[in-house]
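Q: Got a minute? One more chain.
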Amino acid sequence: MDRGADNFEVFCHLLQQRSDWVVRASRLQRKVSGAETGEVDLQAFLKTLPVRGAYEVAVPARRGQSARTAQVEVRYGLVGLPAPRQASPWLRKQGFKLITMWVVEVREVAPPKGATPLRWVLYTSHPVTNLAEAQAVIGYYKKRWLIEEFHKALKTGCSLESRQYQTSERLEALTGMQSIVAVRLLQLKSIARSDPARPASDVVPAKWHKALRVLRPKAARRGPWNIREFYRQLAGLGGFLGRKGDGEPGWITLWRGVDRLTQAIRYDQKRQNCG
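A: Always. Here it is, folded:
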């Protein structure tokens, strides 16, 4: 989880659920307990940790910054997180006073001019006693970018938050079904970026491929589609214009394309059943 989850109650819930975690620290000034430092703020505790190793981390592009490979140093240590002085009634009832966990710091060395240096401070329940274990925890956190893309596909693309169901049971059922669609869209978008020349027929469902070529006849006449062409034609069905300055399709136009495509497939199936 990202920095919004850096909350003592979150860790209590995770312990009760017997779940492991990797959570990015938000407040570096909060008090923690170290075996050799006693109670100090997290920032001061991190300064006492020696560099345990260095390696390269691929940093994806962000607004205003291009993608790059960052040279980082890694530190880690065991730390105790005390309960806050101002505790909620629920937290006082649970009786948690101190939660012991590991902390891993990733700090970029000599970042490019104008780039914001990479720095992650990660709390984790996983034991971190060597560089390989630290890298595993860092790898878990790097999955956050993929998880965020999935949430965009689910919420923005599949419009999950705009549904007007009145019970949680119905929303949960819809979320389960839409999650499958969101994974499919995320796979499609990822492969269109990483392997754009791959034949579309190798990746997408046969019904999708056949139906979209019927619905986009002008593009279909140009020959077989690779996965990038399928991706753009699917978005085109949802309103994407595909002009030179338009960039790549967004989640909304992609979802509209999928919605119209599946409606067309369902209509064709009903027509065949009636016939």
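A: Residues 57 and 92 are 41 Å apart (CA to CA).
Q: Perfect, thanks.
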